[in-house]
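Supplementary notes for students who missed Thursday's class. We covered one full example, reproduced here. Read the sequence, then the structure, then the short commentary at the end.
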Amino acid sequence: MRADLDFDFAIPPGRLPLAFCLVAFIATFFVTRTIVRYIRAHADSDAPRKWWQPRNISVSGTPGAGLHLHHVVIGVILVMVSGVTMVTLAVDGGVPEFTVAAIFFGVGSALVLDEFALILHLQDVYWAEDGRTSVDAVFAAVAVAGLLILGFNPLSFFDINIWRSDHTLLARAGVVVIAVLTLLLAVVVLLKGKVWTGLVGMFITPLLLVGAIRLSRPHAPWARWRYTKRPRKMHRALERERWLRRPVVQAKLWLQDAIAGMPRFPDDAKVDAQLDREIHAAPAPSERAPEQVA
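Structure (token representation):
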């Protein structure tokens, strides 16, 4: 008597996202481990690095100083972005179970972002000056969520009738070109150091055009590449930055102190000190910050 064993290895459509999530998780883990081991093995090498060779990511907050960006920071940002995307687009809001899951995601996100500075610096800077990075991260998350609630869509250039009704290659290519140009504008704005303009501009496209045309912030990569040999333009950027940032810094310091439990209006000396820390000319392209090893 022969028994027929009929196995069905097909993944139900409802579980495909989970399957892709698992595959991406496993692949990313092994790739990350491989890259980290390669960087560690070549940490003491004095040979010049090729463009394709993996290396640590460092960002310069001030000339001559670098902050090593650990991959956990990238992971947290990706988790937040994908989580907000799924909460916004994935399921109809009438499903109560999904609404409960969204509440827990909001609670977990607040707990993670409140310690974002610890993740970024890998040390307890909660009450220190660097701890204000957590407050900045919370501000950004609230701004993005608020724009989504108001109906703004960062991918609105795809949500047009021509994409749905006209399936010709020319029409689709036109939409893709608009999308690419929008993303290029966002990259230019971010290279000019205008993070908030770039962030909100992804929802309100005219802001990207304004940010791309106007002067760069003096410490941004754009200023480093284009203003270091043009002292008059760099001076204009520094003066403009100080004038525009003063009321922003005053409000930011007051709000951050209020959230931290010590609400008080900052005096001029504190505001000037914060402006001195934030505003500086970009170093020349040949001046490189020392590379940190993980």
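Commentary. The first strand starts at residue 58 and ends at 62. The radius of gyration is 23 Å. If anything here is unclear, bring it to office hours.
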